[in-house]
Amino acid sequence: MQKKYERIVSWVQSEIENGALSRGSKLPSENDLMERFGVSRQTVRRAMEEMTEKGIVEGRRGSGTYVTVNTRRYAGKEIRIAVMLTYVDTYIFPSIIRGIESVLSREECTLQIAMTDNAVEKERRLLREFIRTQSVDGVIAETVKSALPNPNVELYRELENLGIPVLFVNSYYRELDIPHVSMDDRRAGYLAAKHLAECGHTRIGGIFKADDGQGHLRYAGYTDALMERDIRIRGEQVIWIDSEALRAMEEDNARFLKRLKGCTACVCYNDETAYKIVGILQKAGRRVPDDLSVVGIDNSGLAKFCPVPLTSVENPVEELGRTAAEQIIGKILKNEEMETLEFAPKLIMRNSVKVIHEI
């Protein structure tokens, strides 16, 4: 026959298994448990001692008793986190994944990687699969063409309505009240343009992504820096490209050379754009930085190994990944609130900027 204190232990275990109690949940008070089970205070305390020894709960002086065990694992459930990125094995994305994986492996969670190729249809297909199977416990997602109206925002809402938390990384959808972890992109564009202005440049062109929200924010930072110094913003020397045009920049080299004519410097949307501009300029017989100074954003491997090592604004992508993973795990295991965090970028100087004169 089950002892009286064991009834309390069994009840707590059952509440954990059915999800009513999760890690961080506060147990009912001693008085509530005494009334619920018709037992003495001594019996309740014996049950607490038993569960404390098993690592299920812990008492906090002046506060009460809380569940400390990883409740999903306690219930025999695997924790699976889907990480949905635009790309996986190129540019900054391996570093994001590395940061996420370092946290998930420590927490013994399973990582499921998916790639959208920055395509709305692929994003839609993946989200529908997560909803249909409900096989993931949380989703860390990089947005797809976030500057454009997106038909998939309702699917993100549906995921959240199913109790599957979503956190955006590296970018976000303004239509959705979902937290994101990213670099401060406006500040990044500002730092890039400010550095060029401080080096004496006044004819500063720019290349920005039209279909990604990051491109708009980086452009806003670029204009902030120029207006701060009363430098004219010349619309004809600002080039807007979309994802497809970025991939095919070399095929449209005449357009870039024409639009940047007369510029002494250029702020590029990211290091990939800057790397390609350096190649276009070199093929046209123009030198970096003597004929055109170039600043990228992200401080990726492309910046370091460009034929002319690029001055670039550092995006702390591995830290973004770690922080995103910690937030979503905290939400799943402890029901902690997730919050938007934007990391401050910093400028990394190399050889792609010519100093005309110091201001």
Structural class, from helix and strand content?
alpha/beta
Task: Record the strand order, biggest sheet.
Answer: 4-3-5-6-7-13
Compute the CA-based radius of gyration.
Answer: 26 Å
User: Rough shape?
Assistant: elongated
Q: Number of DSSP strands?
A: 14
**Contiguous uncertain segments of 5+ residues:** none
The helix-strand sequence is: HHHEEHEHEHEHEEHEHEHHEHEHEHEE
Roughly how many Å apart are the termini? 85 Å
Largest sheet: 6 strands, parallel
The helicity comes to 40-55%
Helix count from the secondary structure assignment: 14
Share in β-strands: 15-25%
Search tags:
17% strand; alpha/beta; 6-stranded mixed β-sheet; 14 helices; 14 strands; 6-stranded parallel β-sheet; single chain; 359 residues
